[in-house]
Automatic annotation (TrEMBL):
Statement: the UniProt record of this protein carries the keyword NADP: no
Lineage, broadest ranks: Bacteria, Bacillati, Actinomycetota, Actinomycetes, Mycobacteriales
Descriptive protein name: Putative amino acid ABC transporter substrate-binding protein
Gene3D superfamilies membership: Periplasmic binding protein-like II
Keyword Signal: yes
Residues making up the signal peptide according to the UniProt record: 1-19
Length: 307
């Protein structure tokens, strides 16, 4: 899911056989990579728990990554608790950056987090700008044409409404104005599936509003421009807990999300082996517990298990 911080630079990718895929899953247009906050802001050190190096996983790394000694990881922002800047700093925190850092520790690699719009991630990986993404991305068959996937936690869909307003659930989406995030699973899979049910029942279509981050969507909700916001459950649970004007109206469809890895078999094998050790560690439980996401824990890092 998500998004931005400060200024940006960009490039374009709309090429050949990938064009239809990128348009249908993540957009095809400028790749936005956002600058850090002002240089005057202090930078924190790595606050993730210690984790032993997995030498077997290190041995699987492709030579290019091993020589670089750095994983380039695309992560969006402005979506606490999954990813956000620690207040007053240039340090990206949240479940996704911390999981990315644990993978790096297991592989004995530095982690270079690149902050990008969610809908720029797939084109960026296809263009070779990033090695992987840890962005709460749902593995789908279409996305697997551009990346391989390794599960790392689970989450569901959630719907949030203005407190005291009319409830909106997965069964009452027809005819509603629903805010979703650009390029998200909710936009590309969840809404189309429920649209089919609306049509079959002779009900009005869902009126979808697209936003680059949840804060924009919630602003549209509280100003009356949307009836509800549909997004990942940890994000909307966090938003509800921190905004007395909101309430959760529904949660549903819990399933794993996955690290998206560039189509390099050796790197996929290395990340999969690293995640096996991450998921089995106390560090994994500590990271998810830190952000109130204990329910997101999984026990197996499946590879390319499409949703």
């Amino acid at each position: 899911m998500t998004r931005r911080a400060g200024g940006y630079s960009h490039r374009f990718l709309c090429a050949g056989a990938l064009a239809a895929l990128l348009l249908s899953t993540a957009g095809c247009g400028r790749l936005e990579e956002f600058a850090d906050p002002p240089a005057s802001a202090p930078v924190e050190g790595d606050s993730t728990p210690a984790l032993a190096v997995n030498e077997s996983a290190v041995a699987l790394l492709p030579d290019t990554v091993a020589a670089r000694r750095t994983l380039r990881v695309a992560i969006p922002t402005n979506e606490p608790p999954t990813q956000f800047y620690s207040e007053g700093t240039r340090y990206m925190t949240g479940t996704n950056p911390d999981i990315a850092r644990l993978i790096g520790k297991a592989l004995n690699l530095d982690v270079d987090i690149k902050v990008v719009n969610f809908d720029s991630i797939i084109p960026g990986i296809a263009a070779g700008r990033y090695d992987m993404t840890v962005s709460s991305m749902t593995p789908t068959t279409k996305r697997m044409a551009a990346m391989d996937f390794v599960d790392y936690m689970q989450m569901g869909n959630a719907i949030v409404v203005v407190k005291g307003g009319e409830p909106v659930t997965k069964d009452t989406l027809c005819g509603r104005k629903v805010g979703v995030l650009t390029g998200s699973y909710q936009l590309t899979v969840t809404i189309p599936a429920y649209e089919q049910e609306c049509v079959a029942a002779g009900k009005p279509p869902i009126q979808t509003g697209q936003f680059q981050d949840t804060r924009q969507a919630i602003s549209a909700l509280t100003s009356g421009r949307q009836d509800a916001v549909l997004a990942d459950s940890p994000i909307l649970s966090y938003a509800t807990a921190n905004n007395p004007d909101l309430e959760l109206s529904d949660t549903f469809d819990y399933a794993p999300v996955a690290v998206g890895v560039t189509k390099e078999p050796a790197l996929v094998d290395a990340v999969s082996a690293a995640l096996d050790s991450v998921i089995a560690s106390d560090a994994y439980r500590e990271v998810l517990g830190k952000y109130g996401s204990e329910s997101a824990m999984i026990t197996r890092a499946r590879v390319n298990a499409a949703q």
